[in-house]
Amino acid sequence: PSPNMGRFLKEKKVVILLTGRYAGKKAIIVKTFDEGDSVRPYGHCLVAGVERPPLAVSKRMSKKKIATRSKLKPFVKLVNYQHVMPTRYSLDVTLDKNKISKAALKEPVKKSEARKEVKTVFEKRYQEGGHKWFFSKLRF
């Protein structure tokens, strides 16, 4: 990419993953690595996304049932820029960059902690309402 080209893959931008296990899933960019590194010599980004979105709830459901159906399953992953499709949306959430990092993905214990962090942040945001599109299944 040329240096005068605008960078549109920025942090907090909502993207849709195009390949692999999470193809068609929505995620937000946590950190970008435009230059790449020794292991991945191409532009890539660290994303946190929703593997399984919350289910629909209605007024007549019990509090317990609503709590159960409001859970979501997150994922954290490093993805090549070629394999993400940017959307016009941004999700303003503050994720702890110390817990969610490249180093954290290498160790299983830290990776599960990173996932838990994403889960709590996303579920809290879902409870607050708004960003309905991000927390829904992609229909296509």
Short description:
By secondary structure, this protein is of the alpha+beta class.
Helix-strand layout with pairing:
Elements: E1 13-17, E2 26-33, E3 44-52, H1 63-69, E4 73-80, E5 84-90, H2 102-106, H3 108-128
Antiparallel strand pairs: 1-2, 1-5, 2-3, 3-4
Plain-language structure description:
The protein has a five-stranded antiparallel sheet with strand order 4-3-2-1-5, with helices on one face. The protein is globular. It has 140 residues and is an alpha+beta fold. The chain has helices at 63-69, 102-106, 108-128, and strands at residues 13-17, 26-33, 44-52, 73-80, 84-90. The mean pLDDT is 89.
Descriptive tags:
single chain, 140 residues, alpha+beta, five-stranded antiparallel sheet, 3 helices, 5 strands, 24% helix, globular
What's the N-to-C terminus distance?
30 Å
Percent range of helical residues:
10-25%
Class of secondary structure makeup: alpha+beta
Coarse shape: globular
Question: Strand order within the widest sheet?
Answer: 4-3-2-1-5
